[in-house]
Amino acid sequence: MASWPPPFTAEGRIVRVEPLTMDHRADLEAAAADGEPHRLWYTTVPAPEDVGAEIERRRALMAAGSMLPFAVIEMLSGRAVGMTTYMNIDPAHRRVEIGSTWYRQSVQRTGLNTECKLLLLRHAFEELDCIAVEFRTHVMNRASRRAIERLGSKPDGVLRSHMIMPNGTIRDTAVYSIIAGEWPAVKANLESLLEGPGSAPA
Fold it and tell me: Among residues 173, 156, 200, 181, which one has the least CA distance to residue 99?
């Protein structure tokens, strides 16, 4: 049986998402060093020296059918500047989560995340016929929660004591989703944010 969803590449004006491979390792090691996002205690971003292992981990989950990982490519430079995934894939109910996303500091608040999410959401709703797309983040990651809410995603609730973090703390997970009926308005909003000179920060 073919995997669902199958690997794909999607390209916008400022960003491209393409299947993650070891060919992206050097770019992503440099990206992980930019701003050292792995030092934020409430995230699970790999340190530069751990990027290779993280690519292997994500590709193993892809082989198991539970994740479809992407490299995020900045069109201007042609470099991989972060990672994102479809995860918690549920083919029977046509649901995916967009998560395990991180970017190098220099591309944050440039519109790159907005367009990346637009590409992944459009594929989920218009090509895969998803009934819902989910987002999850640490309840204390306020920047991530603001970015998720800015997409037009609605809160579903908080999973309390949901995960044990690498530093031993217990994570409460804030859960959000966009359902199929909301997609036309969410799409129009994201496209509006990306219009005009430059691109909207996100």
Answer: 173
Angle at alpha carbon of residue 174, lines to 32 and 179, rounded to 5°: 100
pLDDT digits (tens, 9 = 90+) for 154-174: 999 999 999 999 889 999 999
Q: Could you give the 3-state DSSP secondary structure of residue 55?
A: helix
Report the distance separating Cα 46 and Cα 62, nearest Å: 18
Cα separation, 20 vs 27, in Å, equals: 12
Task: Identify the pLDDT of residue 202.
Answer: 47
Q: pTM score, two decimals?
A: 0.93
List, in order of start, the domains of the chain with CATH numbers. Answer: 10-193 (3.40.630.30)
* DSSP-derived secondary structure for 106-164: GGTTSSHHHHHHHHHHHIIIIIS--SEEEEEEETT-HHHHHHHHHTTPEEEEEEEEEEE
